Amino acid sequence: VNSFTFQANSEADTERLGAALAELLPGGTTIALCGTLGAGKTRLVQALAVGLGIAREDVTSPTFILCRPYEGQRMLYHLDAYRLRDDDEFLELGPEEFFYSEGITVVEWGDRVASCLPTDYIKIQIEVTGDCTRIMKVLPVGDRYLSVVAVLSSRLREAASG
Ligand SMILES: Nc1ncnc2c1ncn2[C@@H]1O[C@H](COP(=O)(O)OP(=O)(O)O)[C@@H](O)[C@H]1O
Ligand SMILES: [Mg+2]
């Protein structure tokens, strides 16, 4: 099995995941974030942003604008498919420009536009288990991120055990 689950017992744990993603993801990576409203998708993007040297407060849900670019050590493209009517509306945003850039692209509600995503991406499914606790399943889709996800998994486990 290539996926792993990360147990976040607090927002600090979510920040650790974001920091590890910022450190380990190669440029041109796309992440699909899945989970209900309030699951912590935007919070995880904030954590990733901080790891890229972007201020957390700058990152808010791209609800009406649909795509927000942030300039950090890499570009971070933050998209949200929640309000989109259909795939065409997503494709009108020109997502290829982000997917095939040297930046990191994160798509909230990525499962809603799954057929528009690149062949290879990382899916993170967030499940709410309590007020401050989340289970985050990290899954490489396609072959390209198999090793990155494996390294991420061991990095987070090392950190957890001290
Ligand atoms: N461990 C955690 N990880 C992420 N968010 C958490 C966690 N614990 C509590 N939260 C809270 O859950 C909420 C998640 O909201 P948000 O990130 O906007 O969700 P979404 O984008 O999935 O709709 C925030 O208020 C955040 O402070
Ligand atoms: Mg959100």
Features:
alpha/beta, seven-stranded mixed β-sheet, binds adenosine-5'-diphosphate, binds magnesium ion
What does this structure look like?
The chain is an alpha/beta fold. 30% of the residues lie in helices and 26% in strands. The protein is built from 5 helices and 7 strands; from the N terminus they run E-H-E-H-E-E-H-H-E-E-E-H. The protein has helices spanning 11-24, 41-51, 87-91, 96-99, 146-160; strands at residues 4-8, 30-34, 67-71, 75-80, 104-108, 121-128, 134-141. Strands 1-7-6-2-5-4-3 form a 7-stranded mixed sheet, with helices on one face. Helix 1 packs across helix 2 (41-51). The chain starts with a strand and ends with a helix. Residues 41-42, 61, 108 line the site of magnesium ion.
Q: How many individual β-strands?
A: 7
Order of the strands making up the biggest sheet: 1-7-6-2-5-4-3
* Low-confidence residue ranges: none
Measured distance between first and last alpha carbons: 25 Å
Whole-number average pLDDT?
95
Task: Compute the number of helices.
Answer: 5
- Helix-strand makeup class: alpha/beta
Q: Portion of residues in helices?
A: 25-40%
What profile does the largest beta sheet have?
7 strands, mixed
Query: What general outline do the C-alpha atoms trace?
Result: globular
Percent in strands? 25-35%
Bound molecules: adenosine-5'-diphosphate, magnesium ion
H/E topology pattern: EHEHEEHHEEEH
- Round the Cα radius of gyration to an integer and report it: 14 Å
Note the topology.
Elements: E1 4-8, H1 11-24, E2 30-34, H2 41-51, E3 67-71, E4 75-80, H3 87-91, H4 96-99, E5 104-108, E6 121-128, E7 134-141, H5 146-160
Parallel strand pairs: 2-5, 2-6, 4-5
Antiparallel strand pairs: 1-7, 3-4, 6-7
Helix pairs in contact: 1-2, 1-5
Adenosine-5'-diphosphate (ADP) binds next to helix 1 and helix 2.
